[in-house]
Amino acid sequence: MAAGHVLRGDRLRRLFMLSMGEQLGNPRTSAIARELGVSAGTVRRWIRDGIPKKRESDVAVLVRPSTELLAQERKELEDAQRVAKSLDALDAGAGVPMWAARSWLVPHRLVLFRHDAYGVIVPRVSVAESSAKARKHQLQGLARSANYARVVRAEWVFPSKYHAQVARLQLLEELLPYRVQLREGILDRGATQAWLSEARTPRLPWMRFYRVPRAGRGTIGELARSSSSLTAAEKRVLRNHDRRAARARQLELDPAVVMVGR
Question: Taxonomically, which superkingdom (predicted)?
Fold first, then answer.
């Protein structure tokens, strides 16, 4: 998906407002113009007609996460994949490293939240079984009006934090053209992980194996107050993961196939 597909029209207008601020419901064109070394009129024309291809990278620097951050995410993805593969290669009951005591190897959920006030979606990874207070702390991060952030589409459950991180980082990588660097004051944390809510969730191989359908969708607060126990559907997802991992060990397959369910 080309960057220019998003950097035009109302989407560009919203990206500017989310990253650079707004004034009377419009982007701060003067501030944007100063950053880009052009006139405010040029910025307005770009919003209306689209950005010249040679300037797309300059605009992306303003509205998207930095290249340094993207490189860091790529490294984190590779590290999480390596650990997840190692865990899936262990026989049941085998010893695990000492950092298992940090609750990183217990089931984790990946949940997507939509904040209607800003038109963005933010991913959150949290421990599946924890107290309501702990879950709210893990899930929250919206600086204001947190209870207006609603669960969208589906949740996914994974056997460890590392499997959940692989899923989250792959999702962020796929959605790069729609991602936005949110300005200060919108999120308490995770401001680099948001994307425009109209972006279609990509179909990644792991999604159908770890998805947990929900009867209802609620706010962060409602989700935090819900049952702290794994649901029957979540337990079934995790049992299926264990079966795939055992099958991969039996056939001496690369543990990486477990996340795609082969």
Answer: Bacteria
For residue 176, the one-letter residue type is L
| CA-based nearest residue to 142, from 188, 176, 78, 179 | 188
* Neighbour tally for 243: CB within 10 Å: 11
3-state secondary structure of 194: coil
Widest Cα–Cα separation across the chain:
66
Residue 94 contacts residue 246 (beta carbons within 8 Å): no
**What ranges do the domains of the chain cover?**
3-62, 67-260
Over the stretch 146-192, which tens digit does the pLDDT of each residue have?
Answer: 545 566 556 899 999 999 999 999 999 999 989 999 988 777 778 89
For 194-226, how does the pLDDT look when each residue is reduced to its tens digit (9 = 90+)? 999 889 889 898 988 888 876 445 666 666 566
Radius of gyration of the chain (CA): 20
User: Which parts of the chain are beta strand (E)?
Assistant: 22-23, 26-27, 108-115, 120-127, 149-151, 155-158, 195-196, 211-212
